[in-house]
Amino acid sequence: MTSSVATPRDHRRRLAGESGAALLEAAVIGPVFIVVVLSILEYGLVYRDYLTASDAVADAARTGAVQGNDMTTASQTADYSIIRAMRDSLASLDYNTVERIVVFKAAGPDNGSPVAQTPDACKNGSASDSASSCNLYFPAAAFGAIQYGDDDYFECLVAGDPACGWNPAGDPPTRQNGTEEDGSGNIIPPDYLGVYVRIEHKMISGIFGSTFTIEDASIFRIEQGSLST
């Protein structure tokens, strides 16, 4: 019986083969690993911005529902308070990524999702008159009005600036809070107020596209309010 003894040359040959296999495995697995890491990073940031948007619309809708048609003690309309709440809640985002904000008359929580209830004319950024029960605000101008205390911007005094179809400063009131009567003396049921936001989140790597659209909305029933002068 004969036996073979591994020589140093055999070891070198085996190690060289293993090195080649490792390089091949790295070439195959490396790109997959990088894509997985980037996807976790990218969509983690998207989810963070989605949570920020969700909190923002909930805070803003709650603010508008409490104020209703009333003016604050500083003579500011409900939409002023809504946009101010949005501006504060979205402070962690790049304002340039916030495309539009809509304040709208909703049908209630049992009539589809808040985003689906947002009138298309305002949601798509094309509302230009008072035909829709929604008010369209572009953050560049609306947030600036908040910063400089421009109350008049939110009173819908100029058609299309902003596009205002549900006037929060109307006379008679256009947002019912359960205190108004119709012609027969019956109490008009309170309206539901919704707030919608659209954000174009900028992706970092570009592998999954340059932007990711985030849409969210929230609905609250308008209360009788306690902010009137």
In which range does the helix fraction lie? Answer: 25-40%
Sheet with most strands: strand arrangement:
3-2-1-4-5
The amount of beta strand, in percent, is: 15-25%
Query: What sort of overall outline do the alpha carbons produce when their principal axes are compared?
Result: elongated
What low-confidence regions span 5 or more consecutive residues with pLDDT below 50? Answer: none
Question: What's the main sheet like?
Answer: 5 strands, antiparallel
Query: By helix and strand content, what is the structural category?
Result: alpha+beta
- How confident is the prediction overall: mean pLDDT? 81
CA distance, first residue to last residue: 109 Å
* N-to-C order of helices and strands: HHEHHEHEEE
What is the count of β-strands? 5
Kindly provide the radius of gyration, computed on alpha-carbon positions and rounded to a whole number of angstroms.
28 Å
Give the number of helices: 5
Tally of structural domains: 1
